[in-house]
Design a protein that fits this description.
The protein is of the alpha+beta class and 421 residues long. The protein is built from 10 helices and 11 strands. β10 and β11 form a beta hairpin. α5 runs antiparallel to α6 and α8 crosses α9. The mean pLDDT is 81.
Length: 421
């Protein structure tokens, strides 16, 4: 409703502005045309009156100039100029506009027989008529703008009514796999074609959602169950005293891979359930997850002159699923250990952030801007390019900030900042 009202206001305003512009241009043309015509008529009348008086004066030198409400005449001879007002005496032959005794006059001046003749036309009534005409034009403009605004409002309502109906149907459409029926009772015009396109898209989208739900439901059982079997079998075999060290190391690797794969599946399924109450109300202990991440990856120190340290400066609880925070910290710790052959990897837990630093070989300048892209692998990476992209998705879900700074040959600093209340 708000969108429709806003659109109608914009359309009505556009109509009003357009009509106002046309009305203003038309009013200006009419006014200046009428004004010029009146001036030409006055000039012609003055010249005719002046010629007539000069002819009468030639026949009768005692003939007096006209003196009426509208027309006044003056004659200046070489012998007598006393009755000529100073403002007239300064005029040269031709047409002029003057103010005499506070009154506007259109004036015609001509010389004949050694005398100078002046004929004045009182423009007061003419100016009043022009002012009334200008008021009429202004009123016409306002009426035209008003009718245009009303017409624009009505027309916009007629145009937007089917669009609004379609928007309401889209908003109220169910996403439970049913056909939304967006194109029902709509005309076969542009809006109808848009509704058909929305109907087709919604049908495909519902089918896709149904497939995704089926997939996530199947993954939860079909993948977790065999992984649990593999992990359980590896644990049982590790308890066999007849196993040598080489075999025991391989079993540990199998058990670890099964556990990490299970965690990855859990994280992906949790992200697929984004927005559910389970994800909203979950809580986890950051320090506890950090301790598990450190202990879980100590096996990567084998054969390296590298230290792995954990510093906990504050205990905090996050409103997040533990498995997702574990995925983030596991990836950061695992990457730090993978790229540090000699030196130190430190995991530091603070009240609002976790910092992972290492003294490894660092990340090249050509790779640092792409490390969060899905399936992007740096020059020295042995993974598949999904770890940090998954970390980025988890951070975006909870509003966390993840930043990685690195210099090649000097090490890397990864900082995870949690959202604050």
């Amino acid at each position: 409703m708000e969108i429709r009202r806003s659109l109608r206001v914009r359309v009505a305003s556009a109509f009003a502005l357009f009509a106002g512009g046309i009305a203003l241009a038309l009013a200006m043309v009419l006014f200046f045309t009428a004004h010029n015509l009146n001036q030409r008529l006055i000039d012609e009348s003055l010249r005719a009156e002046l010629e007539d008086y000069m002819s009468r004066r030639a026949r009768n030198p005692q003939s007096l100039p006209p003196t009426t409400v509208s027309v006044r005449g003056f004659v200046a001879t070489s012998a007598d100029r006393r009755d000529i007002p100073p403002v007239l005496a300064a005029l040269s032959p031709g047409s002029h506009q003057i103010i005499l005794d506070g009154v506007f006059y259109q004036t015609a001046v001509a010389d004949r027989g050694g005398s100078r003749y002046y004929m004045l036309f009182n423009e007061t009534r003419q100016r009043h008529r022009e002012q009334r005409f200008l008021l009429v034009l202004g009123g016409g403009m306002l009426i035209m703008i008003l009718f245009s605004a009303v017409g624009g409002w009505w027309l916009a309502g007629r145009v937007t009514s089917p669009v609004t109906a379609l928007a309401r149907r889209v908003r109220e459409a169910s996403s439970e796999g049913e056909a939304p029926g967006l194109d029902t009772d709509l005309s076969e015009d542009e809006v109808g074609a848009l509704a058909h396109a929305f109907e087709h898209y919604a049908t495909r989208l519902n089918a896709f959602i149904a497939r995704e739900r089926s997939f996530t439901a199947d993954v939860s059982h079909e993948l977790r169950t065999p992984l649990a079997v593999i992990q359980g079998a590896a644990e049982v075999l590790q308890g066999d005293d007849k196993m040598n060290e080489w075999q025991r190391a391989r079993l540990e690797r199998i058990e670890r891979a099964a556990r990490e794969t299970g965690g990855l599946i859990a994280a992906l399924l949790s992200l697929a359930r984004e927005g559910t109450d389970a994800a909203t109300h979950a809580e986890c202990d950051v320090a506890a997850v950090a301790r598990e991440a450190v202990e879980k990856h100590r096996y990567l120190l084998s054969g390296k002159d590298t230290r792995l340290e954990l510093e906990i400066h504050a205990e905090s609880t996050l409103a997040a699923e533990k498995v997702l925070l574990a995925i983030v910290l596991d990836n950061l710790v695992r990457n730090a250990l993978a790229f540090t052959e000699v030196g130190e990897v430190k995991l530091r837990v603070e009240a609002t952030r976790v910092i992972v630093t290492d003294t490894g070989r660092g990340i090249g300048a050509q790779d640092i801007g792409h490390i969060f892209q899905r399936h992007y692998k740096g020059s020295g990476s042995q993974g598949v390019g999904i770890g940090l992209s998954l970390v980025k998705r988890i951070c975006e879900r909870y509003g966390w900030e993840i930043a990685i700074a690195s210099r090649e040959g000097e090490g890397t600093v990864a900082e995870l900042v949690f959202a604050t209340a």
